[in-house]
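Table S5 (text form). Sequence records supplied for joint modeling of the two-component complex.
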Amino acid sequence: MFSEKAKKNADACRFCYMCRHLCPVELVTGKENNTPRAKGLQVSMLERGMKMDRGCAVTMYECLLCGACTADCVTGFDPLVFIREGRTQAVLENLVPDFAKKVIDRLEATGNPYGATQAKVDLTGVPQAGETLVWLGNAARYAVPDVAQALLTILKKAGVAFAVLPDEPASGCELGDMIGHVEDVRAQARRAAQAIAAAGAKKVVVLDSHDCAFFLHECKDWGIELPEVVTATAFVAELIDSGRIVPRKVDEVVSYHDAARLARDMGETDAPRAILAAMGAQLHELYLNEKDNKNPANKACGSFVRARECGSSIMGQMRPDLAKGLCENRYADLLRTDSRILVSADPQAAEALRLSVPEGCETRDLFVMLSERL
Amino acid sequence: MELKAFMPGMILDELADAVGGYDNVSIENSDRATYGVDYFWVGRMWEDRGQVPPMPDWIVRPGSAQEVSKVLKIANYYKVPVHIWGGGSGSQGGALPMTGGILMDMKRMNHLIEIDEVSRTITAEAGMIFQQLEWYANEKGYSCQHIPSCLTCGTIGGALGHRGIGIMSTKYGKIDDQCISMEVVLPNGDIINTLPVPKHAAGPDLNQIFIGSEGTLGVITKATFKLYEQPEDRQFRAFLFPDMHSGYMAGRDIMQKVKPSILRFYDEAESSSIIKKILGFEQPGCFMNLAVEGFKKIVDIEMEIILECVRKWGGRDLGSDYGEKWFENRITFFYPGHIMDIPQMFGTMDTVATYANIEKIYLAMKKAVKEEFPFVRYISHSSHWYEWGCMNYTRFIVEPGDVPQDPEEARRLHNRIWNVGVRAAMENGGVINDHHGIGLKLSRLMKEQYGPAMQVMEALKKQLDPNGIMNPYKLGL
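The corresponding structure-token record, covering 851 residues in total, follows.
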């Protein structure tokens, strides 16, 4: 039922409590089942004869797959392996909770979690093929089009020749997050790779960090060939570094939210900070951000990449109540600093952080901020 | 009284109404099973052998003391048991819902309430994982200095509930020294506060009635702790002693003269196994590591005094590296692959005693366990020290080949080893437990420990919880 790898991880995690303090979902709900240990315990019990029930399926879907637990484990166990397979099992046993099923249905019907059929980004005059292809992702195309528009503006002002697929297919990342890395997901990923190849791309600049991590990790593992893949943040930081764009500086205090897949999966924490520095921003780090290395407590055990994830498009669609709680907790971190501006550099983070902005606080997308200063 | 037909559902509706809706209650089988395993070896073995774990009938997640109060009033009306669950990381089975009923998961109550920088105190709800509390303190430049190995998995309420201790206790005290005041919901639903300061002459300290009560006398919902400035300097040192006696005596002399934050002394069996595995140290003898911290000028002098004490008892100075390495790995010891785990059988029979008795206890427990169970491996260290005595963190380990597969037989062997070890400690001046608590594991031995003094606790229980709903069969109550 579960792979040997999943069973090995679950058997370690079911008795270990060491990442209990980190799960952003558990910190909102206070539910034992939202801890990796409880999910491991349930997988272990399923392997020992317990029947999967609706509660177990809900448990598997109440997770951002942000990897905070994995990053913190000094012994290298990865709860995400058995959580994804738990979702696959819920699908096989027809136990997917309604809140998740509607998102899976939308992903299968339209390729995006919103069930939208028309992208909101204005692509007038943008070529559909070229050596540099900008991959926007679902959140930027449908939920926060201003983020996509800002990136395209920046690239135009920098004189970059780029293309965007008007009918960008699903990458497979979101479906993989919902049903596990099964053949249907690999098929979506292959179709995305074919579309990229058909556009003649030699480099793909990916705006959505979920898609970028998926291209760089899962697609590579599955032998799906893609041209050079770079994050939009790294690409834009290079444009600034090479002098192709020079942003106007504004002296203001901001904090930066490290999106989990950008910071933890791809280790990209410097590029967005370099862009902020180029705009003259004084960065006041949120506590436990990777860059806050001054306090030895941050290095107490495991990785110190502990940045609390703020949500995701999928969570926003599945569980708006939970997504709002995740957002509020991230602003609680901001409110303990002397900054009241929270900047993100990922469309899914921008979407999540707009759900519930406290009075007196402001959220900004890095690309929107930059495009206004060119 | 048996609940028939839709009566359990009626109670579920009432509980949901009490805690803000159905999102905060559950009766799903898988949810209930999750609460049937904590860190207690018997519970873990039971699950590992595919047995049905002890399960609550209703799970509730209150969001405030008022909601806790409502739940307790409902529980008293229906006379159903209530079990309090924090991090679920206890090793004594203290949170296991052995009689079913209501399980109250406290982790929704995880909010910081106040940092008082003038008084240097921090107040938070009791469902907060202690690491979160420590991070909030760190953010302002302070520390609670309660740093147990369960820092990342135990809640504030859990630490208070079983009288926990952290690795820095030798300087900063146990949780009962660090707690200033608490909010407690009594079994009848009344919400009370202990006095705002712990030192007074207004009768007995109410804090000390509820700290260590393991959810049998009420529910701790909020607590205030001391804050400390981060030390300017922290120096580490490791030593090697020829035998247990010299190490115990050196430790005593150190404690009479200075106040290290960490002082850990390992018998030869643990020095040559766990210390060797984690720190790479491999020489015959008994390993000791310590830390001294505070203002550098004072720390330098304290370290000089420590070196004199060590020399007097024939200890060899190993320098600072091993002490630093131990500190870096202080939690690594407890991760999968580094700590004992099923299919091994194991247990920590921690006890505390005066210096006149502590070595005698070490030898007596070892002899009793070895004679009765020759296949048992026995290791021990002393990690919390006082001016008058110290504790032994004594562990027994049974390798998989000697652990019965039948869960009933395995449980029986486990409990027999515990009885022999703990009785040897008590017969030689030690106490039933130092810092893991009593829970279900040691409940049966409480009356042996206390004798007629147990009636004081029984009277408290009878008065505060006349229906006996609070965490039945734990703490000997």
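Note: The domain at 132-240 of chain A is CATH 3.40.50 (Rossmann fold).
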